[in-house]
Design brief:
Blueprint (H helix, E strand, L loop, with lengths): L8 E6 L6 H13 L2 E7 L10 H12 L5 E6 L3 H7 L4 E6 L2 H18 L2 E6 L9 H9 L10 H16 L1
This protein binds 4'-phosphopantetheine.
4'-phosphopantetheine binds next to strand 1 and helix 4.
Length: 168
Amino acid sequence: MGDESKVRRVVCPGSFDPVTNGHLDIIERAARLYDEVVVAVFVNRNKSGLFTVDERIAMLQEATGEFPQVRIDTFRGLTVDYCKANDIPVIIKGLRAVSDFDYELQMAQMNRGLAGIDTLFMPTNPEYSFLASSLVKDIAGWGGDVSALVPPTVLKRLIERAKGSDEA
Ligand code: PNS
């Protein structure tokens, strides 16, 4: 069996532009299963975000502040390279619906093939199965109410951003 003294560490990678209540549900549940959950904001070469990486990190830090075993980090590169550099054997991903599964399975199998890093899938709380950062940004940008979908720190910044773009 495994070494009992070893820290059980998992990474939860994503864009988090911005973090939603759906992400937080997965992060909190992962924190009950692991000694340390590293939430890693990955810089996507093909997507420019609404929020800068520093803003995304700040929102994640504020939203997860009550969980001492959650740490926020950022990386530019492959998830498996991040895992190897940080001694993390497992990736955790939330699955909202079957539609997420195809792509997530492909990435999980690729990551295992590339570096032997395993991926665990956690079903999203059905309350959040329709939730996506892209929808939140669109709704908030048009002045819609997303207060049930994101933590207060994100809501505040989305409202400020929407006001800023109205004035521009
Ligand atoms: O929140 P997202 O945008 O769905 O997250 C996607 C993310 C960051 C997990 C994915 O794009 C990723 O793993 N990026 C790092 C680069 C990488 O490892 N690419 C190969 C995947 S097999």
